[in-house]
């Protein structure tokens, strides 16, 4: 019996009206009336994300997710669910849905633009990183997820790739993105297996009814990684990986955890507790001394954590390099100045497309492309060379598999990370 890919039995997507947003927009302004679509930022199975500039507020940029109705056929319910969830959530650490538009062939979601890049990349680039930094990140995530849970929403796919920095500033806040697998509690019992292997909670793997606690487990996994640079559960075999998770088997390995405080370890144990009834809620986690007090160490752990992140999550960097190849010519054509910036927040994890900024692409990424002997002057040759390079080097040296792809439950929208 297949573990993933189940569909809800009561689904009748084929009977849905072609007007997904259920609005009479004959007299309403269209997307083109209010926004000028610009660069393509990413593509998915049946959607794309474009940079857009407001026509009423010069210079104000947004991200527009454009969904093809024809390709979406049979998955209308999932799009309606995603829109319903995003409309309900208004929090400073959650990427906002601002407006929706629709025409005969497409649905448009105007989203808040996030430009600060991915969580792990920022940590690696930092010169100093402490437990206190990790605790501050987790506090922001917990506050947002606590709010989400108060609104009756379960994310179901929390992972580092879905945590993005709002802007490039050093003190930028963190943002939760990608609600393609989210579910509202009032929509019925959740028992369908979905999420990302490595971050999914035991009760999901056991195919038991589950709820908000699955998000708390995922936050525990992320917290673990933030303090050592590698995942608590890993195995080349999915069956063995799932067995580890079901048993809650993880260790605080020496020497990587030797300098980490007992409070941090206790915090993680409280979140990654197999017994759902004993697992902390977000509210309880926020009261833990490691988050709310002064228990988090201020010792610099950047060297060990960044080294492990680069080894075990190198795939993110390769995605950036692949994206950089395509972006080099675009930036040259646009003749962007060094002070300009291509938004870096639209992360296409499922389609192996990632965010990139002008400064990092034109300098750091070009240096990295040169280092692996790829000529960015030829996009076709570059793509082929990079594909070969990824195939031969993407597996982490430690043997820890890179597991980033979400496993849908058969009813999800094209989960473009916004």
UniProtKB/TrEMBL annotation:
SMART domains: S_TKc. It catalyses: L-threonyl-[protein] + ATP = O-phospho-L-threonyl-[protein] + ADP + H(+); L-seryl-[protein] + ATP = O-phospho-L-seryl-[protein] + ADP + H(+). GO terms for molecular function: ATP binding; calcium/calmodulin-dependent protein kinase activity; calmodulin binding. The keyword ATP-binding applies. Residues 1-30, 350-418 are annotated as: Disordered. Residues 35-291 form the Protein kinase domain. PROSITE patterns: PROTEIN_KINASE_ATP, PROTEIN_KINASE_DOM, PROTEIN_KINASE_ST. ATP binds at residue 73. Residues 374-394 have a biased composition (Low complexity). Keywords: Allosteric enzyme, ATP-binding, Calmodulin-binding, Kinase, Nucleotide-binding, Serine/threonine-protein kinase, Transferase. Its EC number is 2.7.11.17. Belongs to the protein kinase superfamily. CAMK Ser/Thr protein kinase family. CaMK subfamily. This is Calcium/calmodulin-dependent protein kinase type 1.
